[in-house]
């Protein structure tokens, strides 16, 4: 099931995405509006709205986004790093989150902004100290993410808050796919294109640590709330973005997240 969050006529709602469409198109897709929110059992209203008549919003509003660094060996190597003995976790604030079609505002303090295509896990229930055998019970689903990074600031600062937490640095979307189990999530193809040219192509099978390992690790330290997001790392091939570029993250079985880089106003 694909669950989207959207705005129409000034109202915000969740809906189940129904139908099929050609790649890169929303033609034929409709939203069956949900009663309430999708973090518990819910019903659909039967009221359907064409997807191309609404504005897609970030599929969730997380209280926090937890990123995981250097979870693909080839990506760690391309930046001159070793795979760490334990996962490197960092936070992106809620103000960094944008949705499909929103602009990535190039930060004024950076001269080197990079794309990073990632599989994102959306938490579906309040949880802490999650054991491996219960991980599947706390996941709502998966979505596409772009962990946009000011690489020069990441190198110069002693920690990554500015480099990875600036406004608009966390595109998520276009929706949450709830029909992917953990075994499937462990072998998904993901890619990133910039202006239609492929820049990243990888598989979640290359992750150093699994989705289960990451949720166990993160939940040892902090309580996760419904709608919180864990970014699982990026494969090799990261590179620069410039104002005017259109960057798209596509993940097998989920969809495509597309954003344009704009000048910060």
Automatic annotation (TrEMBL):
Q: Which residues form the Rv2993c-like N-terminal domain?
A: 1-59
Q: Which GO terms describe its biological process?
A: carboxylic acid metabolic process
- Could you list this entry's UniProt keywords, alphabetically sorted: Isomerase, Metal-binding
GO MF entries:
acetylpyruvate hydrolase activity; isomerase activity; metal ion binding
Q: Which Pfam families match?
A: FAA_hydrolase, Rv2993c-like_N
Listed InterPro entries? Fumarylacetoacetase-like_C, Fumarylacetoacetase_C_sf, Rv2993c-like_N
Q: Where is the Fumarylacetoacetase-like C-terminal domain?
A: 64-261
Superkingdom in the source lineage: Bacteria
Protein name, entry field: 2-hydroxyhepta-2,4-diene-1,7-dioate isomerase
Q: What is the lineage of its organism?
A: Bacteria, Bacillati, Actinomycetota, Actinomycetes, Kitasatosporales
